[in-house]
Amino acid sequence: MGEPLAGLDGIDWAGLDHAYGSAEDVPDLLRALSSSDEDEREAALGELFTTVFHQGSRYGASAAAVPFLLGLASHPGTPERTWPLYLAAALAVGYDEAHLPSGVDITAWREKAARLRNSDPAAEARRLDAWVAEAANEQERRARAFDRDHFDFAWALRSVEAELAAYDAVRAGLPTVRTLLGDDDAGVRAAAAYTAGWFPEEAAATLPALEALLEAEQDPVVIAHALVAAGLLEGRALLPRFRDHLAAAEPLPRWAAAIALARLGAADAPVIAELAASSASPPEGETAYLENDLRLYPALTLAALDEAPPEAVDAVLDGLSRTSDEASFPMAAAALRLTFRTPALPLPRFAALTPAQQRTVRTIAELPPESWQWGNLLEILRAWGLPTDHDECRRYAGLASTTRP
C-alpha cells in the first residue's frame, strides 16, 4: 500500500484558494486526518469542510485535495476512513439534495459549464433578461428578476469550473472507490457505494461492482446504500434483486429497494406502498443520503411521480405533520409538489383547492412555531403563493389564530 499523502508537498497550495483565501493550510489539515488523536482528526475534518467545502461551495483547492482524501480512505493506517470518503463525495456533488431523487444530470451540468465558458457578461445578461420576460406571472417575474440582478458572471464561471473540477477529480479516483466496495469495514463499503452512485458516466464499470457487493453483502446499511446507488445509475439488470429486497423482512433495504425501483420507473403498488409507509414512519438506520432523513427521500420520490394515489399523499402529509424545526421545510416542499404540482398563483380561495391541497395547507399551518421560525419554510411558501405569516396561513385554512387574546 502506497503512502496516501505522497506528492502532497509538491502542490502549490498557497497558489490555490479556498473559502478563506490561500489554501496553504490544507496540507496540514490533510495530515491531521491520520493523527492518533481523535480530537485533532475531528478538528481537521471540520476545518476541511469549512474551507474547501464552505456551505457547499468548491474552490481551487477542492479538486487538488481529492486524490489525498481518496488515498487516506483506502489506506489501512488511517484511523477513520469513512469521513475522507464522504468529504470527497461532498466535493464532487455538493449537497446531495440538489440531485435527488433523480441523480446527477451530468449532461446538463457540463452543458452549463460549456455555455458559460463560451459566453460573456453581456450575453448572459441578455439571456437572463429573456428568462425574466418568460415568467408565467408577476410573482415569478420578481423572483427571476432578483436572481438576474444578483448574478455575477465571473463568480458563476469560477464556481462551475471549481465544481466540475472537483467532480472530475473524484471521477478519476473511482477505481479506488470501487475497490473499497470490497473493504473489510462495513462503514467504508457503505461510504464507497454512496460515493460511486453519483457518476452516471462510469455506470458501466460501477454497476457490476455494486452487483458483486450485493451478491455477498449481509449488512443492511451497506445493502441500502448499494441499492440506492444502483438505482441512481439506472441499474436495470438489478431489477430482480431490487424486487427481492422489497419483499424481504429487513426494513432499511426495503426502503432503499422501493426508492431504486421508483427511480427506474417501476413504481407499482408494492413500491408505492413501501414509499408511503416510509414517508409516514421511516425505518431505523443510518444512511448518508439527505443527511439520513429517511422520511424525506421516499416523500421526494413520491412527489417526482406523475401521479401518486391518495393513500400515498395521505402518508406524506402524515409524515409532514410529525416533523418540527428544520425537518419540516423540505417535507413541506415535497408535499406541495405532490399536491399542487405548480404554484397556485394567484392564490385561489381555500374552498377552491382540491381536498389534498386543502389538507396540505392545513398540515403546514398546523406545524409548530419551531418550524415556522425558519426562513427556508417561508421562502418555500412564498414560491408556492401561500401566506408566509403563520396566523394568516391558519386563517386562510380556516384554523384559529395562534395569537392569544
Look at the helices and sheets and give the structural class: mainly alpha
- Extended strand count: 2
The H-and-E topology, N to C, reads as: EEHHHHHHHHHHHHHHHHHHHHHH
Shape: globular
Strands ordered across the widest β-sheet? 1-2
SS strand fraction = under 5%
The number of distinct helices, counting runs of at least 4 residues, comes to 22
Radius of gyration: 23 Å
Which spans of ≥5 residues are poorly predicted at pLDDT below 50? none
Specify the biggest β-sheet: 2 strands, antiparallel
Overall mean pLDDT score?
Answer: 95
End-to-end Cα distance, whole Å, is: 71 Å
In short:
By secondary structure, this protein is an all-alpha fold. Helices cover 61% and strands 1% of the residues. The protein has helices spanning 26-32, 38-51, 60-74, 82-93, 106-117, 121-133, 138-149, 153-172, 174-180, 186-196, 203-216, 220-232, 239-246, 251-263, 269-280, 296-303, 310-321, 328-340, 355-365, 369-372, 375-383, 390-396; strands at residues 17-18, 21-22.
What does this structure look like?
This protein has 405 residues and is mostly helical. The chain has a domain at 307-405. Helix content is 61%, strand content 1%. The chain contains 22 helices and two strands. The chain has a two-stranded antiparallel ribbon with strand order 1-2. A hairpin with a 2-residue loop joins β1 (17-18) and β2 (21-22). The longest helix has 20 residues, at 153-172. The radius of gyration is 23 Å and the shape is globular.
